[in-house]
């Protein structure tokens, strides 16, 4: 999986960190996640413990989107066989499927391709009746890949808004509160359009805390945010929306546009959402690999969030505490954390992503021998084409240059120069970031 692994294995601790990363991504792979939670026995389809009688439906279709949607769809095809009559998903990579059409879209900014594919998906949903079972596949990346501008908004309005939110350090919950109110399908609106069909959501979470209404901006989930909440996001982070976006949100706040469906909306009477994989899935797999290698694993959290360079500091402090006092674990140990950190770009910005900033900040702050690795499980860290990085304090020879690169949000080129970037290419899944700190025994 890691293309440049041989160049990264500088020690046994590096080897363990890389093993943990690969295990984490493997466990969250869409095929593995789907086959562990979806099964069929005769005409009974079971999804995460909920059963569906296929005899009750004339049509069974798969629709949806996300970076891992192709892999989930292929697994669903293998389970359903001839019972599946069609459907359409949009993903970032092409995947060979037998029955369901796949369109390749763009990410992280929406494009004409995304809008065209989403329009066709919505047509399929609109045609569904009481005898239709819709398997709605939703994974990380769906917020951009499933694009349907609301009202008189244009694709350019969505692109500009998304770009400003992403570069402004806005957390995913805030970004999605805005996206839901600029869309014709997000924020529960796919459920409204699908009614009275039965909808079974098949979700892989890329959201800290697994708030289902935030995954992919919650097309099949009730929305508790409002047009007013969306406007507040721009005020809170001192960002200016495009004029058309401001006018649309203001019209919604004044009641001129219907709100997204709330939890008591009857559109959800025949909707059930099933979470089949998340960040904890990845961390548990990494912990198992660490234990097999003779290291005591500790999963610190799957809810990590905040500015990447700042998040790194308490993590390395825990590693130092473990070395000094055996708290919270006696080395050799592996500390694991997951979630989604952010980068607030200063000045003209540089190249890299939050995971590369976590590693560079961590090794600069660390007073010890821990190996620090961090990756985005989708294989693309921020705007870069690498998954993340791995390093320890001995990796950094010129600390002044390294600090300058970090301050300039230019961690990527510096880490690449010292051969510390982790290269996987797109992994086909997305359950946020995984951070691994390997704390060797004092004798190592």
TrEMBL record:
Superkingdom: Archaea
Coiled coil: none
One Pfam assignment: DUF4147
Keywords per UniProt: Pyruvate
Residue intervals of the MOFRL domain: 334-433
SUPFAM superfamilies given in the database record: GckA/TtuD-like
Cellular-component GO terms for this entry: cytoplasm
UniProt GO molecular function: glycerate kinase activity
Location of the MOFRL-associated domain: 17-250
Residue stretches spanning the membrane: none
InterPro entries: GK-like_C_sf (IPR037035), GK_N_sf (IPR038614), MOFRL (IPR007835), MOFRL_assoc_dom (IPR025286), MOFRL_protein (IPR039760)
Keyword presence, DNA-binding: no
The UniProt record lists the keyword Oxidoreductase: no
Name of this protein: Hydroxypyruvate reductase
Organism: Haloarcula rubripromontorii
């Amino acid at each position: 999986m890691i293309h440049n692994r041989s160049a990264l294995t500088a020690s046994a601790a590096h080897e363990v960190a890389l093993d943990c990363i690969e295990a984490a991504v493997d466990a969250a792979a869409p095929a593995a996640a789907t086959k562990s939670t979806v099964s069929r026995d005769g005409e009974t389809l079971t999804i995460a413990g909920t059963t569906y009688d296929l005899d009750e439906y004339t049509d069974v279709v798969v629709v949806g989107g996300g970076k891992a949607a192709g892999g989930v769809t292929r697994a669903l095809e293998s389970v359903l066989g001839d019972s599946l009559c069609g459907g359409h998903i949009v993903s970032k990579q092409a995947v060979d499927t037998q029955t369901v059409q796949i369109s390749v879209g763009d990410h992280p900014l929406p494009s004409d391709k995304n809008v065209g594919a989403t329009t066709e998906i919505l047509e399929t949903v609109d045609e569904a009746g009481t005898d239709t079972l819709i398997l709605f596949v939703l994974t990380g990346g769906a917020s951009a890949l499933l694009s349907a501008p609301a009202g008189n908004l244009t694709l350019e309005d969505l692109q500009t808004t998304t770009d400003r939110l992403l570069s402004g350090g806005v957390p995913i919950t805030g970004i999605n509160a805005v996206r839901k109110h600029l869309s014709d399908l997000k924020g529960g609106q796919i459920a409204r359009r699908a009614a009275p069909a039965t909808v079974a959501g098949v979700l892989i979470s890329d959201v800290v805390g697994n708030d289902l209404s935030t995954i992919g901006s919650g097309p099949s989930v009730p929305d508790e945010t409002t047009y007013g909440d969306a406007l507040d996001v721009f005020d809170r982070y001192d960002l200016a929306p495009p004029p058309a976006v401001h006018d649309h949100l203001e019209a919604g706040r004044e009641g001129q546009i219907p709100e997204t469906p709330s939890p008591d909306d009857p559109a959800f009477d025949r909707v059930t959402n099933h979470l089949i994989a998340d960040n904890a899935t990845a961390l548990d797999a990494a912990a198992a690999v660490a234990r097999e290698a003779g290291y005591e694993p500790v999963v610190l959290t799957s809810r990590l969030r905040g500015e990447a360079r700042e998040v790194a500091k308490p993590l390395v402090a825990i590693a130092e505490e473990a070395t000094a006092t055996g708290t919270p674990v006696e080395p050799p140990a592996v500390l694991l954390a997951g979630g989604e950190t952010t980068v607030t770009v200063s000045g003209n910005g540089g190249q890299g992503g939050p995971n590369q900033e976590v590693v560079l900040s961590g090794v600069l702050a660390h007073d010890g021998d821990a190996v620090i690795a961090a990756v985005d499980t989708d294989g693309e860290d921020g705007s870069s084409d690498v998954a993340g990085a791995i390093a320890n304090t001995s990796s950094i020879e010129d600390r002044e240059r390294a600090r300058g690169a970090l301050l300039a949000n230019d961690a990527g080129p510096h880490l690449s120069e010292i051969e510390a970037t982790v290269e996987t290419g797109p992994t086909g899944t997305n359950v946020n970031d995984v951070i691994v700190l390997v704390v060797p025994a004092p004798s190592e």
